[in-house]
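Late entry, written up from scratch paper. The run itself happened at the end of the previous shift, but nothing got recorded in the book at the time, so transcribing now.
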Amino acid sequence: MSTTTPTTTIGKAANFAETRVGASVLVREFGRKIFPSHWSFMLGEVALYSFIIVVLSGTFLTFFFQPAMGELHYEGPWLPLRGVEISEAYDSTLRISMEIRGGLFIRQMHHWGALLFVAALSIHMLRVFFTGAFRRPRELNWVVGVLLVIMGMAAGFTGYSLPDDLLSGNGLRIIDGILKSLPLVGTYISFFLFGGEFPGIDIVARLYTLHIMIVPALLIALIGIHLVFVVVHKHTQYPGAGNTEKNVVGEPVLPTFAAKGGGFFFLIFGLLSLISALFTINPIWNYGPYDPSPVSAGTQPDWYIGWADGFLRIVPGWFEFYIFGWPISLNINSAVIVMGGVFLVMFVYPFFEAWLLKDNREHHILDRPRNNPTRTAIGVAGIIFYCNMWAAASGDIIAVFFQMSLNDMIYIFRTVFFLGPIIGYIITKRMCIALQRKDREIALHGRETAQIIRLPHGEFLERHEALPPHKLWKLTAFESPEYKPAEPNAEGKVTKSEKLRARLSRFFFEDRVAPVTKHELEASHHDHHDAVEGSDNKQLGH
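Output as recorded:
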């Protein structure tokens, strides 16, 4: 440790921090952290930077928004609403949009940033799923990611419900209906949330508390936990020459990654600023204040909530029955069951896959999606399941655009709801297996060159070119999940759960293409070299 007394201002400041908080330890440990370079790893950065922009813009909005439902008559500059009875929340939102300098720009940046945050977070989760980055030791980080998605949806819903306009009021009306459809406790929950019969007088204030305090605090805590896990577990990387389970090939945080990250933040900030300046979103002045009697045609929530609304539109109205006089309204509360089921599957999938494969090893090398056909097929089936319900939320708009009957659109969405994921699963799995076979052929025989050679006995063959080592590594250095048959326990018995695991493992992993072995690779290259060398020595025409 140096005992030299610093003389410069920066040196004195650094010495002050070091002697009191031990900053050098933090810089040494975190600054040397290696992050691999790949465009897909930037998705998490997009989500983080979008969240920062949302927090900054939201802080500005809190200075002017009034979370109250007291009634007044509008006297602002928007003439179509002059003299109309509105709430204080709606009035303050109009004032932000039309009277406060830069208010509309900041409000739209807040909304667009929230959409980008949830979108980047969702795509980031898909990348993690398809590449197997959730495997040990990152299962808990995956759980944190799922919680981030849920909290992101909660933040978005509580946010766009605050203006108390017609669109947000209709969304709250749907929530009220879902709550009241819950057996036994639904009515009590609704009365507690709304402060009485819908719409009540307390809902905006309560949503405001959730939106600016509780949900952001949970989001910040979850993001912090996620980043700690990233540092502790080290970053995953794609397969390639030199990449192993014991190292990370990339750039250190300081100075390279930090400099790039800072520049990327301002790119995201600039993009959101451009979008916010050019494209209007949620023009509440056109919707008017909330009134329970009218419902505008074509209303739909933000895309990340739309899938629940879409399910409500396609579920049959007769899906309701009584048990001991109590109504079980599955035509409404089944949306809660479906959403809960989706998130439950997301929570348990890492542990389920490890159980199927009896795999307790640590994994730091990512999978190419094609090399795990079953997982990729499940992911595509889930995307189709989600997108179908998302599209169903706009079923009335789609019906008008294509000049179709709305009932026909509902039946189409119902059919795709059941058949779409199954068809997507089958097609995706066969495509992945076909791509694996193509990779195997290229690894064994090389790349096609479109050069034709003639053998001594008159046969024509196409000359193949051997792949560079780094590309060959990418096609051969991977693990293919295999079916694990049932095994007896320590007492020599095969339990029922083990038999179930074996049956599921057979279904998931029986169809596979084995990776090219070193022996196969050497043999194929030796045979290919002899064939080409023999033809060249005889100087046959190409």
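The first helix runs from residue 9 to 21.
(Scratch paper discarded after transcription.)
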